[in-house]
Amino acid sequence: MVLVAANSQLQQQINAVEQRTVDAVIIDLPVVDTHKTSFKIQTREQQTFLVSHYSGYQNTLTAQQLPDYQPGQYYRFELLIKPPHSTANGVGFDRERWLFRHGIDGIATIRQAQQLDTIRLPLIQAIKVYINQWRQQISNQLDNHFVDERSNALIHALSIGDKSRFEPQDYRLFQASGTAHLIAISGLHIGMVAAIGAGLGWLLFTLFPQQRLPRPLLQVITGLSFALIYAGLAGFSVSTQRALIMLAVYGFFKWRRRSAYAWDVWSISLLSVLIIDPLNVLDAGFWLSFWAVAVLILAFQGRSSQHSKLIDFIKIQWLLLIGMMPLSLLQFGSLKVWAPLVNLMVIPIMTILMIPLLLLVLLLAGLSGHIPDFLIRYLNMICDLFWALLDQFAAFGGSAWSWPINSSLSFVVLTLAAIILLLPRALPHRYWAVLLIAIALWPSQTSLAPGQFKAEFLDIGQGTSVLISTQKHHLLYDVGARFPSGFNMADAVVLPLLNQQQIKHLDSVILSHKDNDHAGAYEPLSQAMSIGQTLSTDGRFIDCVVGQQWQWDGVDFMVLSPYNIQPYLKNNSSCVLKISTPQTSLLLTGDIEQAVEYRLTQQHPTELSADILLIPHHGSNTSSSAEFVATVNPKIAINSSGAYNQFQHPTAQVKRVYENLSIPIYDTQHSGRISLITPLNSQTEPTIEQFRQQHPKIWRR
Q1: Per residue in 270-310, pLDDT tens?
Q2: pLDDT in tens, 566-589
Q3: Nearest partner of 701 among 283, 295, 267, judged by Cα
Q4: How far apart are CA 289 and CA 183, in angstroms?
Q5: If you write DSSP's letter for every residue of 318-330 in order, what string do you get?
Q6: How far apart are CA 490 and CA 527, in angstroms?
Q7: 582: Cβ–Cβ under 8 A, 6 or more apart, which residues?
Q8: What gap in Å lies between CA 448 and CA 454, rounded to an integer?
Q9: Which of 55-59, 377-381, 524-528, 624-628 has the lowest mean pLDDT?
Q10: Which of 21, 327, 425, 515 sees the fewest Cβ atoms within 10 Å?
C-alpha cells in the first residue's frame, strides 16, 4: 500500500524547472511574512503547488503591494515552478520529505497574479475551501481581539492549527522544554475535546433520557461531533485525522457495548489509519502517537491502581519518559529529562483552563462575532502563565540529554530495555535492564587515526559549510546563511549534525568572509556551541591571514590568503585554507575570484597543489580560471551550491574547465552532504560518500 501511494505521488510531481501560466484556487490559509505571502494552490489538472509571492520579486528592485489572498479565491498565476526539493544531510528537518508527504507537486514563485471569477468546484474540494474560509474568518477575529503577539500565536496554534506565527526562538523554547506536542492540535487535544463532548452527552441524557438513543451512543455522537468540528478548525491536518480514526474505532466499541480491549482498539486503529492513508508511515507523529499509546497499554493494562488519579497522572509522565526513550533518541537525538515535570504543570493548564475556555471563545466568535473582554483577559493571563512556565524550565541547563542513536542494533537494545522496565514489578530483577541502556548508548570510538582527517561538505543550499575532523579536534569552515525570517543553517543543519556526531566543542571556526551565505548563521551557532577560537577576515575575530598555521593530530593547517584584512575586498578577502597530510590535501577557497587565483598561482604555486579542491565561489564564472585549476591539479573537485539556484551555479563555462582537465565534480545540490575520509597510505584513494546516493528516496529510512 505504501509503495503504491508513494509511486502515485511521485508520478504527480514535476521533475524540471518550468515557467507556466495556470488557473488555480487557493486551498489553505495564506502565511503572511514581512516580505512574502505563501499558500497552497490546486490547478485544474489537480496538481498542488506551494507558491510564494514576494513583495519585491528577485529580479525587481521595486517593492509591490501584494494582493489580499484568501482561501477559495480563483487566480490566473504566472509561475516559475521548481520540483520539490530541499537540502539532504540526514539530520534536522527533511523538508523534501515533508513536501512529498503533504502532496506538494512543485514549489513555485508567483510572477504575475490576476484574480478571476469564482468557479464551481468539485464537492470535496469545495468542502476543503469552505473549511479554510471559515478558519480564515476565525483568524481575522482572533487578530482583532488578541494584540499580544505571543498570546495571539499560541491561540492561533491551539484554535485553528496555524503555527506560522511563532518566532524561531519560540520553537527553540518548545524543543528545549519538550512541549512541542502541546502546541500542535493532535491526539491529545482532539481527545480533550472529545471528552468534553462525551461529558455533554452524559449530561444531555441525564436531563432528557430516551430509549431510542442510549447514553453510550449519545456520548459517542457528541464526543465525535466535538472532535470533528475541532479537527475541521485545524484544517483536518494529518495528526487530527489519525486522532479521529482512533476515536471512531474506540467509539464503535463503546456504542456496541463490546469489551474494548486496549490492544484490539490499538491494532484496529493502526490498521485503519494505514488503510486510509498509507503515507502516514512517513510522519514522525504517527510513530510517536501509536508508540506512546502502546507504552501506556503495556504499563497499565490488567493492573488495578491503588493510588489517586494525581499519583497515576504523575506515574504516567515518568513511564512515558522511559517508554518513549528509544523513539525520542532515534527521532530527535535527545531526551528531555524535565519533560515529565513540565507536562505535570502544563497539561493541566491546557486541559482545565486553556482548551475549554478557548472552545467557549470560538463558539461566541462564531455565533455573534463578539468575544467578551473578560474572556480575552483570562485567556491572555493563561497564555502568560504558559510562557512563564516554559521560560522557567528552559532556564535550567542540561534539561535535554543528547545521545543520538546511529545504529539499528542500539535502537533494538534500547527498546528491549524500555519494555522490560515497563513490565510489572513481579518480574524479578527487571531493573538490571538499565545495563542494556548503558550498552546501547556506549560511545563508539573514533575511527580516525593520527595523520588522517574527515571532511564533510554540508548541503546548505546556496552557501558553504565544511566540517573538518581529526582524531581529537574539530574545525568548521563557514556556517551558512541566516534569513530575515530567523531561519538559519546553524539550527537547521550544522547543530543537528554536530549533535548526531556527539561533538560538544569546536576547536576552531573559520568565517572565510562576511557574506551571509558563509557567515550569516554564526551567531546562533556560537550561542548553542562551545567554540575555542574564531578566525575571520572582517575584523571581528582573530585575523585569518597568511602566516596562520598549526597542526592537529598529525594534520597540517595553513592559511594561504589574504595577506591582510584591510581594505576589505568582499569575495577576494576570503580566507583560503589548506589542510594536508602526507597522503592527501584539501584546499578550501571561499569565494575568491580570478584576481586572487592569479596571485596565488604566482606566489604559492607549490602550496596551492591539492588532491581535493572546494570549487571557488560555488562555480561562478568569476572564478575557476583554467590556470588556477591546473596549478591546484586536484583529483577531485567539490562544489557547494543550491538546487535550482538562480545563478545557475556551477555554470557551463566552469564545468568545461574541470572537464577539460578530466577532474570529476561532486556537487551538494545533487549529492547532498558529501563526506570524505583521507587514506592512511598513498596507495589508496580518499573514501567519498554521497548522502543522496547512499539514501535514495522513499524515504531515507
Answers
A1: 898 888 888 888 888 888 888 888 888 888 776 666 667 77
A2: 888 999 999 999 999 999 999 999
A3: 283
A4: 15
A5: HHHHHHTHHHHHH
A6: 10
A7: 451, 682
A8: 8
A9: 55-59
A10: 425
Within a 10 A sphere around the Cβ of 663, how many other Cβ atoms?
Answer: 18
Q: How many beta carbons lie within 10 A of that of residue 290, not counting itself?
A: 19
The 3-state DSSP class for residue 55 equals: coil
Q: Which residues contact 373 (CB under 8 A, 6 or more apart)?
A: none
Q: Which three cell numbers stand for residue 208?
A: 432528557
- Model pLDDT, residue 552: 96
Chain segment 494-520, per-residue pLDDT in tens: 999 998 888 999 999 999 999 999 999
Three-state DSSP state, 101: helix
**Per-residue pLDDT at 396:** 67
C-beta neighbour count of 499 within 10 angstroms: 21
Percentage helix, strand, coil for the chain under 3-state DSSP, each rounded to 5: 45, 15, 35
**Is residue 690 predicted with pLDDT exceeding 90?**
yes
Q: Report the b/e string of 72-82 with b at 16+ CB within 10 A.
A: bbbbebebbbb
For residue 399, name the pLDDT band (cuts at 50, 70, 90): low
Instruction: Give the mean pLDDT of 56-78.
Output: 75
CA-CA-CA-CA torsion sign (151, 157, 162, 165): positive
Q: Contact, 77 vs 21, CB < 8 A?
A: yes
Specify the DSSP class assigned to residue 450: T
21 neighbors 76 (Cβ within 8 angstroms):
yes
- Structural domains in the chain plus CATH codes: 2-119 (2.40.50.140), 137-394 (no CATH), 408-440 (no CATH), 454-694 (3.60.15.10)
8 A C-beta contact, residue 196 and residue 226: yes
Look at residue 154 and give its three-state secondary structure: helix
